[in-house]
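Troubleshooting log. The previous structure file for this entry was overwritten by mistake, so regenerating from the original sequence record. Sequence copied from the archived sheet and checked twice against the printout by T.R.
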Amino acid sequence: MRLPGQPFFMLFASVLLLGADGLHVPSSSSTQRQIDEYNRRQSPDGQHCEATGGQATQYWDCCKVGAAWPGKNVVVRPAHSCAKDGVTRLENPMTTSGSEGGSAFACNSQQPFVSSSNPMLSYAVGARPIVLGEDSFFGACYSIQFQELPGKT
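Regenerated output below.
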């Protein structure tokens, strides 16, 4: 459960950047290195990213994550997909997503989670509109502060 004002890191479309693919649990130091590297690439002064508005999802639909398709990301391998049980890993990255009638689903290990070392920090895979194309955000790590607005659920 995310608390009001709690930092929430979303990794858009790829769980492999932080190593949260079920084999690794991100440590705060590796997470900070990823964030620092992202900031260096995105910020003119290398110190911070500029705050901007936008949309992000906050749901869990169990569909195969976008990064599980070959050629979608620039990492060592596609993210894993799992059978309907959420545990059994599928070896064929071309297996169609369950959301399209296939048998590939997100793995239980790809669900949003709260850091064990810092309960005020959460991690999740997110989705966003593809305005500038996937290459503009795919595999990026974002620090998001959700606003507590009246009427927001």
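The first helix runs from residue 28 to 42. Archived copy saved in two places this time.
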